[in-house]
Amino acid sequence: QVQLVESGGGLVQAGGSLRLSCAASGRTFSSYAMGWFRRGPGKEREFVATIRRSGSITYYADSVKGRFTISRDNAKNTVSLQMNELKPEDTAVYYCAADADYSGSPYSAGSYGYWGQGTQVTVSS
Q1: Residue 100 and residue 27: Cα distance in Å, rounded?
Q2: Which residues are 44's β-sheet partners?
Q3: What mean pLDDT comes out for the span 68-88?
Q4: Is the Cβ–Cβ distance between 9 and 91 less than 8 Å?
């Protein structure tokens, strides 16, 4: 069992920055890939970014590429999402997720078996 707890959400003006963090416990953190997803108001959940086990491979959604950076600290069992140049369309609940099996697409929510409760990010114009 893996427990994930997000933090760092809040209200920010367009153009500003936020840093989300996700603390993991329950299994060996370095053995699974981590991802961030989001669900905007009235929208489906969508992929944001993922980082593989070693931390050397990352993938991003086109909508956030160049603005967001995912990173992990395997010694501290944490994964972070640095969000810069935020836009109103980035407003969403952001979820941290863990993929322990490496059996599916890193872009698909279905590949991740463990989820946090989510943290709200609101970007005002």
Answers
A1: 9
A2: none
A3: 96
A4: no
